[in-house]
């Protein structure tokens, strides 16, 4: 083992060929009360009127929406508070109508991943000169919508959860048949859009707003964000840049989330958690690639056909997935770097120590520990979930040397049951 650097992390770089790292970061505003500068960022973007896009809860919670309104001041064009966790394409079209009715030239997306994703779809639709019928037809056929290369409405993201849609070039979107049967959608469809143009122009990380989020929502999103740091370390396309940000971010999250689990709700705790979330996200969503890997593939497999929440799915499977990955011969899972980042690098058995520390973070958040305790699949559905997981595009980033079978992934689900 090499000596640790000034941050306490040993320099353990995976043997790798020369790499190319391309990432365009939003302007990042961080700190208590930073949303007071929303109007200044609009001015920097040469925009004059912003539509706030959020859900009904955020829109009716003064502790969240009032600081945003104040920060925008005269630049507030209106509030569209109709987003839901379904992330409907129809909702995005309604938001587009509101954008045009208010003559807004920017979007301020406030809330969790659902609102930020719908805002991205609205932005893309605003630049699309095709008819709505043609757009819906494309989504019905392909599960995605072509994102125009120019003309998108800039987005200022104000996340109130920790899931990570704020530093992402992608967005999920779904569609359902019209109630009168007249639409182009014949059945429930899930999909998404992606492109570098979807990255927000600015992101505001205000601990005071995150502190207003209900604990049940915040805990699930925190686990999702925490797993991004884990996966970025061992992803096949990891780089020294993402090694550094993910390692530092995991250290902050491990400290902040366990403090949160002990009941500490002071501003410093939320600042530590948010610092960690920003760092683990930095650089993981890049043109044409991401560092998300097998845990997220399992999350997608579990949630596509079940009602289990993404954060709960991650909480249940993450320790078991790590045990599986670490136990495979010839897999470069970078256990030592993970152990250093999580503060257990001196342990004689770093793989077991990493799993224990991840489990401790999960338990500190009071998240589910067994698959049977969430609204997920029954054992007779595990093969289908495993097949969906194996086919998920995130598996392309699995640690080098990992080539699992469906039966092996079923065994992971059985261990999580």
Automatic annotation (TrEMBL):
Keyword Oxidoreductase tagged: yes
SUPFAM superfamilies the record matches: Dehydroquinate synthase-like
Keyword Oxidoreductase carried by entry: yes
CDD domains reported for this sequence: Fe-ADH-like (cd14866)
PANTHER family reported in the protein's UniProt record: ALCOHOL DEHYDROGENASE (PTHR11496), HYDROXYACID-OXOACID TRANSHYDROGENASE, MITOCHONDRIAL (PTHR11496:SF83)
Single GO term (MF): alcohol dehydrogenase (NAD+) activity
InterPro entries found in the cross-reference section: ADH_Fe/GldA, ADH_Fe_C, Alcohol_dehydrogenase_Fe
Coiled-coil region list: none
Alcohol dehydrogenase iron-type/glycerol dehydrogenase GldA domain: residues covered: 27-207
Record keywords: Oxidoreductase
Sequence ranges assigned to domain Fe-containing alcohol dehydrogenase-like C-terminal in this UniProt record: 222-417
Name used for this protein in its record: Iron-containing alcohol dehydrogenase
